[in-house]
Amino acid sequence: MSATDRKPVPPFHLAFPVRDKEEARAFYAGLLGCGVGRESDRWIDFDLYGHQVVAHVTEDAGTRATNPVDGEDVPASHFGVILDWDDWHALADKLKAEGVRFLIEPQIRFKGQVGEQATMFFLDPSGNALEFKSFQDMGQIFAR
C-alpha cells in the first residue's frame, strides 16, 4: 500500500513514566505547547500534535539504552512526531532559542539516501527521549 492509498492516520495513545507531574506540565505544555487534557495527582494527558500522550508519575523514569544509527547513538526507547518540513525547522529554532540541550543536534540524516530526513533528539526533564523528524518527501517515511 502506498502512502497516497492510506487512510488518514488516527491519533495514537502513548503512556510514559515521569518523575514529577508539574515538571512534565512545564515541559510538554509550556515548552512544546501541548494542550492539557484530563489529569489526576499521578498522571496527566497531553495533546501532542493531535495524539494523546499520558505522563504517569513513577520512580522508574528515564532508562537509556542506545542503538547506533547513521553514526549517532540513538536512544532505543523514544517517541515523537513527524512534522511538516517548515514546522520541524520552526520547532528546532524554538528549542535552540530556549537553550534545550540536544542528545542529537538538529540535522539531516541519511543525506542523499532513501529515507533522508531532518531529525533531532532531546530529553524531557524525566529523561524520556523524544525525536522529532521531517521528510521533504513524505513518501519517504516507509521507503526501503
Automatic annotation (TrEMBL):
<dbReference type="InterPro" id="IPR029068">
    <property type="entry name" value="Glyas_Bleomycin-R_OHBP_Dase"/>
</dbReference>
<protein>
    <submittedName>
        <fullName>Glyoxalase</fullName>
    </submittedName>
</protein>
<dbReference type="InterPro" id="IPR037523">
    <property type="entry name" value="VOC_core"/>
</dbReference>
<dbReference type="InterPro" id="IPR004360">
    <property type="entry name" value="Glyas_Fos-R_dOase_dom"/>
</dbReference>
<feature type="domain" description="VOC">
    <location>
        <begin position="10"/>
        <end position="135"/>
    </location>
</feature>
<dbReference type="Pfam" id="PF00903">
    <property type="entry name" value="Glyoxalase"/>
</dbReference>
